[in-house]
């Protein structure tokens, strides 16, 4: 179990947010509703979706590495 206030928990949260926003960006209805705002607090989701789309290979490798590390080395 990952503590939400540790560095591990922060990395897991950021990676899951990027992955989720990257997949939600492919759904047209959610794209209009969720990613229309590019500034402010809601802009975080837009920026996370851009990162998830453009750096999909790096994000996938990071997720697999983090999963391995949490499952076996922690």
Automatic annotation (TrEMBL):
One of its GO terms (cellular component) is Golgi membrane. Keywords: Golgi apparatus, Membrane, Signal, Transmembrane, Transmembrane helix. It is found in: Golgi apparatus membrane. It is a single-pass type I membrane protein. Its main location: Golgi. Pfam families: DUF1242 (PF06842). The chain crosses the membrane at residues 6-24, 44-72. It comes from the Eukaryota. Belongs to the KISH family. Involved in the early part of the secretory pathway. This is Protein kish. It comes from Rotaria socialis. The lineage of its organism: Eukaryota, Metazoa, Spiralia, Gnathifera, Rotifera.
């Amino acid at each position: 179990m990952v503590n939400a206030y540790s560095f591990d928990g922060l990395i897991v949260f950021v990676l899951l947010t990027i992955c989720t926003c990257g997949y939600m960006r492919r759904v047209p209805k959610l794209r209009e509703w969720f990613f229309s705002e590019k500034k402010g607090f809601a802009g975080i989701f837009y920026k996370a979706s851009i990162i998830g789309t453009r750096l999909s290979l790096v994000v996938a490798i990071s997720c697999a590495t983090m999963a391995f590390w949490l499952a076996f080395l922690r």
